[in-house]
User: Fold this.
Amino acid sequence: MEMNLYLDNSLAQAYKSPSQKIRVLTEKWTGDNIYCPSCGSSLNQYENNKPVADFYCGKCREEYELKSKKEDIGLKILDGAYDTMIKRLASNSNPNFFFLDYNADSLQVLNFLIIPKHFFIPQIIERRKPLAENARRAGWIGCYILLQKIPQTGKIFLVKDNKIEPKKKVLEKWKKTLFLREEKEITAKGWIMDIMSCIETLNKKTFSLREIYAFEKSLQLKHPDNKYIKDKVRQQLQFLRDRDYLKFIGRGVYEVL
Assistant:
């Protein structure tokens, strides 16, 4: 069945709150149109607002939380409590995230992407200011998910700029970075993601070790305790090569697979 890119506004008539309306519309649309990007099977929706996820795959058991936003996903997404989010990142209960944006007038889905949970590390979570003393939840601290700090390879589009991406392509992109789940140590995972981002900044199919060395100063700022940045860069490139993310051509030259 071909994906329908429009939300069904008739489902929201029983709700008064705009946030409730869009939650109902986007959850129904996702359940009707989106497949599991891990295995391609249909998704099931959790009942009773499960705290850590909205959907799950009955075949591979992957879980997904849905975030929606009108017009433009932007560089960061508002999320819940900061402390809760940080604890989730270190646990097995952390779900993958679906992000959906839509046109507020036509209710057309503009973009729908998945960010696998293995790309979520504390460095991409921004702590918000505590709520004011006169607020209903005075002192409560929320957070933002900083999308700009996630490598592009960690953003898998099922719909991009109103166009539906081929299912085969989506499943291949999911499998490409599963090796990150092997890395349990947060700092090590952060290094891998940083090198991925450096490679993407070059925007080249093939690149040299010297070109990655050009990011030494920015990497030093991110990892001030490491005094051997170039050694670490070589280590991460070798790791990515061993995981078939890169191919070593020779003489310090790599190819992105």
User: Anything to note?
Assistant: DSSP finds seven helices and 13 strands in the chain.
